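Standup notes, protein team

Yesterday: finished cleaning the Musa acuminata subsp. malaccensis set.
Today: Glycylpeptide N-tetradecanoyltransferase structure.
Blockers: none.

Input for Glycylpeptide N-tetradecanoyltransferase:
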Amino acid sequence: MVLGEHDSSSPVEEQTANPDPQPVSDAPPARAAAAAEGDGEVESLARRIQEALAVGSRHRFWETQPVGQFKDARDGSLPEGPIEPPIPVSAVKQEPYNLPALYEWTTCDIDDDQTCAEVYNLLTNNYVEDDENMFRFNYSKEFLRWALRPPGYFKAWHIGVRVKATKKLVAFITGVPARIRVRDEVVRMAEVNFLCVHKKLRSKRLAPVMIKEVTRRVHLENIWQAAYTAGVVLPTPITTCRYWHRSLNPKKLIDVGFSRLGARMTMSRTIRLYKLPEATVTPGFRKMELRDVAAVTRLLRDYLSQFVVAPDFDENDVEHWLLPLENVVDSFVVESPETHEVTDFCSFYSLPSSILNNPNYSGLKAAYSYYNVAMRTPLLQLMNDALIVAKQKDYDVFNALDLMHNEVFLKELKFGPGDGQLHYYLYNYRLRSALQPSELGLVLL
């Protein structure tokens, strides 16, 4: 599905007057916000004002797409649901779109070690960076295989572009299938992610044809909707979430520029402020096992039913997405010592970033809050235990969005608001009005 377009801060070598449409499938690696004083805040405010003023003139491409339009935002008469009806699959273009002459399509078999290494290297060196070019996402090979092979995945949706002469992989885009419930309707969707074009080729107009090609392949499976995220404002977010950060290794975070010392704070006081207990406190808190899948599925389905937009997980999905996988996803349950019933659940996934141009550190180990269900245990206590195990596993920072019920624990557990926002979008599906982050039950990688 079409996800985005170049904005004024996109790292392209040559920008045309009419920018190529380009998916922006993730916010940049989030950073802790600067203290609310000084030039940083003024510059941030000025940038946001400029972005808001430019929104109307920046999205000519999006005006041709079946997405919510800014001009329709206050029109309550528009129906909720698909914007355009599906067409017969037989009417979908059967042949791949034409690439520029020097390039060719390739389907990336992520199970193949050599291909997986090529994808890893492309993303590691060319994927999303923060605005100051200090951090770049560094997805591991194990993470990529987990993210791209959910139940029922299509290999044909893992799309690469190679140079014909050398066979070098220079661009990549992916989709995975998902069932996402919007109010009372469960909709088959694609989640499109990992659009990456080699830095030296961003003037070659590869992104638009890549978007059209993944869209074509999704349509061939009779799927007509998508969910996606972007760190920039496009027409039109269904909600906007903010990243919050909890320091686990504050000295390192300050040393690398992720965060900075607060006013009237010393390093030793900061380290004491963020110190966590050595062990978890909830009786029956333990690592999730295969035998817990059915119970976790029941907990999760019941919990997610209260949100307007949320995934429709079955046991196969829960086994894939939430069963612990070393250095990829960690999940924990609370098992009642008396009844042995699984009463609560929490999880986080691992998404490190490369630290650029720093002589002392090369990587930042970041945990991202995933799905958490607190039924018997207070959410504050459950998430404090999650922080403790993340610290035990040597994570530097624990990140969370302010969606679902996360606001309950963010300030209490010493999370600070970051400078990164994440905008959620639906393709070819209209909501009558934007949601509050607390009405969203969907976490996209």
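Follow-up from PR in the comments: Confidence is low (pLDDT under 50) at residues 1-26, 34-39, 52-57.
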